Each structure stands twice: as structure tokens, then as C-alpha cells.
Give the backbone structure.
Amino acid sequence: MRNSVTLSFAWLEGLCLPENQIASEITYRPIGIVHSPFREPYGTPIQSVSAQDSQGVVEVFPEYAAGLEDIDGFSHIILIYHFHLCKRFSLRVKPFLDDPSHGVFATRAPARPNPIGISIVRLIRVEKERLHIQDVDVVDGTPLLDIKPYVPEFDKREAEKKGWFEGNLGKLYEMKDDGRFAE
């Protein structure tokens, strides 16, 4: 599972940027694996805030263990990961919380041009390269790309507008993944 994730930027050729400023590809190597009770997308909570009490473990590969120093000083961390089960994407999607389709960038749908996900989880304890977490909404075996500390003073913002989510937030705690993006 330590394969790299390569993103191609061949589609940028038509943009008006100097050729030396356009990366032809970007490669990410997983730094670990997320383990959770969710063996498949179907039934997985759709956001970490609705995954209350779901326990998991982040297994950081030994070569990245030194980067965990001082992480135990945080109550929450941000996991950045690769949606490895999403095989295709569309620029218009029917999200979990609404019936009409929306532009993918106005949703949190996992099937995206670059299938990168984020979750804020509670850090329970650290045991060497293993981070025990709570409120996990990630499928077991998901490749982990990065970890950042959650700091409310940096990360929390008051939002004046919530787009199409506004009338649908009441569904959040009942809604689970129905597998539509892993096909």
C-alpha cells in the first residue's frame, strides 16, 4: 500500500502560464494507512462530525515516525488522505445531502478530479507510530497523505453563507454513504 499517487497536469498545456511554471505531474507517497471499522464505503458516515464515537487507528509508516513528535499535545488532528476507492469523477454530482446535482467543487463528494479527502478527528492517544483516533469517517485501508494539527484559532471560521447545504444540514446525522462514488 506504499505506492505513490501521481497526478498528471497534461490538461494545463492550453493555459497562458510560462512553461517552466507548470508541473507536468505531482507525486504523493502515502505516509501511512487509516484503519477504521468501515470495510467499504457503503454505510460509512459522510463527515467526521457525524461519525461520533467511531474508533480508528492511524498507522504512520516508520520512516515518518519522527514527524509525530509533539502531536500528542493536540486534542484534534486533520487527516489528509487519498480516496483510493473512487475510480472516476464527474464535474456534476448528486451529493449525499441533496437530490439535485451540483458542481463537484460545491460539494464534499469523494469522486473528484483529485480524490483528496480531509477529516478532523479527535486524537485519543499516541503509541509510537499509531495514533488512536475517534470520530473517524474514513474507509479502512485508506492511504494517508498528511497530518496537520487542528487549531481552532487557525481553522474555525464563521460562515455567512452555506450554499445549498443550508437547507440540508438536518440530514447530516442520519445520512451514510450509499456507495454511489465507489462504483
